Amino acid sequence: MKDLKKLGRFFCSMKFALGLLLVLAAVCTVGSLIPQKQAEMYYVNQYSEQAARAILLFGVDDLFHSWWFLVLTGLLCLNLILCNLVHVPKLRHRMKEGYSLARCLKRWDGQAVVTVKEDPSGLFRKMGFRRIEKETAEDGTEYLYAVRNKIGIWGAWLCHLGILILVVGFTLGQVLQIEHTVYGVPGQTKAVGDTGYELTIDSFDILLREDETVEQYQADLTMTDTSSGESRSGQASVNHPTSMFGWKCYQNSTGWAATVQVWKDGEMVQSQVLCTGEYIIVDGLDGVSLVFAAFYPDYARSETGESMTLSSRLNNPAYLYRLYYHEQVLGMNVLTGDDKITVEGYEIVFTEPQPYTLIQVKRDPYTGVAMLGGALILIALILAFYLRPEEVWARKEKDGRYGVAGYSRKGGQLFLDTLKEKGENYHG
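The chain above was modelled as a monomer; its predicted structure follows.
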């Protein structure tokens, strides 16, 4: 039984809560640095093979859905729930019986903070105390007592509740949120998964600073409800999503796209915009497909012969392609200038390079829950720091004057100094 009580106290302890918060903060930082939900080869290419293996083994590629992250979150929620349940009876008792003249007199050493000649009720009111109680002891001594901001004792409790709701809202949002990815160039309209909505990329701009470094990416978007035909527009930029039909659209990343044209006997028979990594099946050539592997806006070769770009400007655009026939590689090369691919009388050319935008479209049904938790934390901080419980009391001495004292658990000396200053200037 003792062991169970110790375990219960441990789960309710502040040390346990702080430890969990530190661990979760570190884990969330890792999750923000490592891209989530990418293909296995992405991590192999971006990191070492050992690091990629560890990322996949521990579920860091989908961190917020991993079992151990949910366990940590569950333990934090358990701690907060137990803390709140344990402290409710104590706080209720303090609200009902914890503030009284008798309680103050027990800890009063008889030394007044200040002595006034008149009834100090006016002094108490100037200090912000509204309800003033007067009592007469059995020996005929007259006492006055007042308390304010009792509700402030609920600040810490409400903060725990707010953190609990915030954690629950965030976790449910990460686990149950709906997310789709739409990418393309201005003028393209693409379906947003199976939601019944379409997203049109009206424009996409890359804003540069004077030193030609990127300042901002922004996309003008239009979302259309295919069932009703209703459309709404907005602008998404990095860290500034736009909301339409309850969906949030985030400017996530960018890359390069180009138009691939297929010609036969001097006539264009096929044209399609491809983003890097996409492919086209060539009409008229059975089993032949072309992959747009990479783009170099300012193409050059390094000393070792590797392809590279000298800048992000379109000074010498080059296109790396791979040509397949039934999954067998027919050829791979870099096209520059007027270079073209020739296959059985067909000519394939790349033209019109332009940046594309990748938009993440998300719906989190628990955003309101997380916002409620944040609002409760803000209210709790106001209660804890600005509505501190304060008490004052006075005793009428034999010479008719009143000895005044007071108490405040937080900022006690400052409170007493204020009481003394106002008392010395009090004239009834």
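The radius of gyration is 35 Å.
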